[in-house]
Amino acid sequence: DAGITQSPRHKVTETGTPVTLRCHQTENHRYMYWYRQDPGHGLRLIHYSYGVKDTDKGEVSDGYSVSRSKTEDFLLTLESATSSQTSVYFCAISDSRRIEQYFGPGTRLTVT
Amino acid sequence: AQSVAQPEDQVNVAEGNPLTVKCTYSVSGNPYLFWYVQYPNRGLQFLLKYITGDNLVKGSYGFEAEFNKSQTSFHLKKPSALVSDSALYFCAVSATSGTYKYIFGTGTRLKVLA
């Protein structure tokens, strides 16, 4: 998976608790992305980063925040988890030379 | 606004027959177009991309795709399907400048029957 790891790979949490998912890359790529995958919706962009400390919202950013303090790490935080955030979350990376995105293995999050 | 449509939720094809998975797009300006494949419980794997140039793009595992600007389509094709090609396929589009954000289609499940 192109030097991308995600942790944890599986998580079950309760409604109202904060949750942080981590994406770590060893490719030194500039761009990093967080997506969620839900049946019937494909993948939808939550947030993305175009450099250290440079982030912006995607199409489904409500209830999520991100941080990128180092090139290699991109954190996604669910500030107060809700059942509608039960999903599979994917991190991806790209750079301006190759453009295509490479995806991590995913994190399956269940909010009960 | 950018959008991608994959009009078929599922495509069934017999092993050895040619396969086509359809994708149409809407984007301002010239698009970057991509195909990805997802096997069960895995991340997405990059298959191929169209940036510019030849309308027929060849990618991994014998797949190819044809860019048709007038029909705003980017259909994925393979001359002879394998059972191991059975998976979920996603088309994506990106604007040609900026941060290379994708818009994904909803996916097409390909089932190759032995």
Structure description:
By secondary structure, chain A is mostly beta strands. Chain A contains no helices and 11 strands. Chain A is globular, with a radius of gyration of 13 Å. The N and C termini of chain A lie far apart (30 Å). Chain B is an all-beta fold. Helices cover 0% and strands 54% of the residues of chain B. In chain B, the strands form 3 sheets. In chain B, strands 2, 5, 6, 10, 11 and 12 form a 6-stranded mixed beta sheet that branches. Chain B has a 4-stranded antiparallel beta sheet with strand order 3-9-8-7, with no helix packed on it. In chain B, strand 8 and strand 9 (73-78) form a beta hairpin. The mean pLDDT of chain B is 92. The A-B interface holds A 1, 4, 31, 33, 35, 40-45, 48, 50, 56, 58, 90, 92, 94, 96, 99-106 and B 32, 34, 36, 41-46, 49, 51, 90, 94, 99-107.
In quaternary terms, these chains amount to heterodimer
* Overall 3D shape of chain A: globular
**What is the terminal separation of chain B in angstroms?**
41 Å
Mean pLDDT of chain A: 94
Using the CA coordinates, give the radius of gyration of chain B. Answer: 13 Å
Report on the biggest sheet of chain A. 7 strands, mixed
Radius of gyration of chain A: 13 Å
β content of chain A, as a range?
over 45%
**Residue ranges of chain A: pLDDT <50 for 5 or more in a row?**
none
Strand and helix order of chain B: EEEEEEEEEEEE
Basic shape of chain B? globular
Number of strands of chain A: 11
Helix/sheet category of chain B: mainly beta
Q: Helix count of chain B? A: 0
Percent of residues in helices of chain A: under 10%
Total DSSP helices of chain A: 0
**Helix share bin of chain B:** under 10%
Set down the secondary structure blueprint.
The complex is a heterodimer of chains A (112) and B (114).
Chain A: E1 4-7, E2 10-13, E3 19-25, E4 31-38, E5 42-51, E6 54-57, E7 64-70, E8 73-78, E9 87-94, E10 102-103, E11 107-111
Chain B: E1 3-5, E2 10-14, E3 19-21, E4 24-26, E5 31-38, E6 44-50, E7 56-58, E8 64-68, E9 73-78, E10 87-95, E11 102-104, E12 108-113
Parallel strand pairs in B: 2-12
Antiparallel strand pairs in B: 1-4, 3-9, 5-6, 5-10, 7-8, 8-9, 10-11, 10-12
